[in-house]
Amino acid sequence: MSTVAIEPLLHYFRRETTGLRCRGQAVRSCSLNCCSPKKFLSYRASYGNLRLGRTRSSVRASSPGDTALVETPEFTSDGVFFCETFPLTRTETVEGKIFVRLDQAKDQKNWQLTVGCSLPGKWILHWGVTYIDDNGSEWDQPPENMRPPGSISIKDYAIESPLKKYSERDMFHEVKIDIDSNNAIAAINFVLKDEETGAWYQHKGRDFRVPLVDCPMDDGNFVGAKRGFSIWPGLSNLLLQTQALPSKSQDNNSESIDIKQESRQLEAFYEERPIAKHIVIGNSITVSVQKCPNTAKFLLYLETDIPEVVVHWGVCRDDEKNWEIPPAPHPPGTTIFKNKALRTSLQPKEDGNGCSGSFTVDEELVGFLFVLKLNENHWLKCKGNDFYVPLSSSLTAQAGQLKEEASESALVSSEAIEAIQEDSPTAYTDGIINEIRNLVSDISSEKSRTTKTKEAQESILQEIEKLAAEAYSIFRSSVPTFPEQTALKSEEQKDPPKISSGTGTGYEILLQGFNWESHKSGRWYVELKEKAAEVASLGFTVIWLPPPTESVSPEGYMPKDLYNLNSRYGSIDQLKDLVRNLHEVGVKVLGDVVLNHRCAHYQNQNGIWNIFGGRLNWDDRAVVADDPHFQGRGNKSSGDNFHAAPNIDHSQEFVRKDIKEWLNWLRKEIGYDGWRLDFVRGFWGGYVKDYLDASEPYFAVGEYWDSLSYTYGEMDYNQDPHRQRIIDWINAAGGTAGAFDVTTKGILHSVLERCEYWRLSDPKGKPPGVVGWWPSRAVTFIENHDTGSTQGHWRFPGGKEMQGYAYILTHPGTPAVFFDHIFSHQGSEISALVSLRNRNKIHCRSLVKITKAERDVYAAIIDEKLAMKIGPGYYEPPSEPKKWSVALEGRDYKVWEAS
């Protein structure tokens, strides 16, 4: 269970280009041979009809002291040694209307609610109802006869209904809900969802409501006519423009309306307001460079499909890439910006499709730097840095890059040899020592992360102490003990202290052993038992089972009686039998425990469901006080509230005592080896540490889920704040558990959907997710029961799953594979990757050297044992000092083993 992350809408024009590395890195240019006139003209045709061979034009020098006319040399296809197309993204705002209308049906007895939106998109109404006198939860599912065609159920409390146009001439996408007067419904609750972007349109995170009965309403989110709500709160902080339609009298002769419904005084209404949506548009700019045979100067030609843009540009004389203004001549209309750069407006092309411009710079210059300016508030850059074009022959540029890559390779190789020695009995402890070195480097780094420095350093120092203790314990356990020594060992001698960190050995590969539909057969435990031997043979060492408790929802995520383990997945005896069989084949078992919330058995004196039964018969002191729906008498919540059930107050001593006893009972009675912790955003990580210290799991992982960072609908390159929040939770839990690496999943989405593989390297050249900062606590994944399966809340890019698995199964961290993927047509490829990881002993702290992170390809070498690449671009690992052989290859991915 999780909060849905919001994805940006993208209309991206994909183009095949040569490799690109941004500021501080060389750009690989085309060789002289590849840019022969014939090939260059073919290249030109692929990039928006790049126009060369322009006629000479008179240009006036822009410096005040230079008034002589100069001529721009003719740019031809001959002698072009560099051609590169850079992808660009920009946003446009589209405005429209959203409306809500309530009017009577044709039979004059019932009513009809219509919600519509005039913007393009795939709009979904996410809605539910509140019944009269129902205080058990905020939302319920409506009766079947109210559900529009195409509706699907979301868990057990909501419906999603698609909006559609009923004819080509319709301006609005809309959906109609028929309201039967015989149903005792007090209100309809809804939010509007754009499936193309993943955005939810609601009011400050709360739901809109249309009341159908007159009752006390102290909530400002109601929509309706003549009910005292002159403003409809909601989207973009814009004012509501309300137009009330004439009310229609109700049918007084109806005998079907029950007593409760007679209190209804519905009136027809119509409300609409403006709504804005940001759409990301994909563009590009092509840069070509040649050397003028007459003047020996460099000629640059820039062309873009953006209709109007200003180039903010300069040059550099060395590899430091410091901007400076080149000497005249400059293009017409060029102005000087703060004596540091020049600004030139590109001129509209004759065909009206974009604009272009020519630039001349001296031969002694090393590089051409530029950024693009659309307006005062919108600049276009390359991965947040300046665009850089090398002004040298292709051979010189390639030689420089090869030298740089060879230097980096030698440096990382020496570190890898020092930190990880193949087949060494201390390889794992050396890996820990290497991680300690990384943490120390993080402390001494001048560029601190966006967090409180003192607290971050204290947390890192604590982690160093734990890692040192763990390394020492493993080292002691690996020292051979001879029989004579065993005989002489005194009773007073004690074994090294047991380190129970909940992070296993570091070599785990996790399988999620269910999907969202697994409960429907009623015998999932039996079905999974039949696959136990196969799961082990596929190379998985740990399996995560579904929530075992009695639950209001059949999937198990609305637990009620925690000690009742007869669920829709099977009986307690079938669960024990399954766990026993998995242990027999060497597979550890994680239980899915829901600690944030619990469904009540009874109502209090106010009719609120907050009194619990069963063995843990808590009263409303166990419910947090700031959950407005369940009137708890506990303390305020230490995290985010989950609105569908009472949120448990873990600050209460009796609650923590009971949960620790329950977890230990599960360990002993069922045989669970560890935990998957649901919705840990709901309570402080310190409580998790308390529970794990008490239950001593072999492995534990928390689901800390929130949205990544976006700007105008485009995912930000820097996701440090997002992964820092996950790191903060792991720190709060004392490092006793790992966390799902949601950051890595989100970045992979953007990488694969938009062909932006450069995103897979952060500014320090490390993996950009949690796995780049704390790999031993990162559980990487691409899909689970929430994001995929039949829910599909945040589905991985279709057809590109194997690229995702090629990434997580070759990299550090603990990879998790989704049940639907391994038992599908992709199963053989995934199992081959699992086998390759196990064979090469890749573990959670393995060393990654990123060798390429460009537009269309990402490549890395792991522990000097594996080389891999994903993306359509070209990559081959260096032939020295290792010899590499292809181990696996599939669509847009490839993995090599060191010979």
Describe it.
With 899 residues, this protein is α+β, with helices and mostly antiparallel strands. It has 16 helices and 40 strands. The strands form 8 sheets. Strands 1, 4, 5, 9, 13, 14, 15, 19 and 20 form a 9-stranded mixed sheet that branches. Strands 24-25-26-29-30-33-34-35 form an 8-stranded parallel beta barrel. Strands 6, 7, 8, 10, 11 and 12 form a 6-stranded antiparallel sheet that branches. Strand 29, helix 10 (685-695) and strand 30 form a beta-alpha-beta unit. The longest helix is centred in the middle third of the chain and has 26 residues, at 394-419.
- The N- to C-terminal Cα distance equals 44 Å
Helix content: 10-25%
Helix/strand/pairing category: alpha+beta
Low-confidence runs of at least 5 consecutive residues = 2-72, 226-264, 393-428, 444-452, 472-500
Portion of residues in beta strands equals 25-35%
Number of E-type strands: 40
Largest sheet: 9 strands, mixed
Total number of helices? 16
Overall, the morphology is: globular
As a whole number of angstroms, the C-alpha radius of gyration is 32 Å
Average pLDDT, rounded to a whole number, is 78
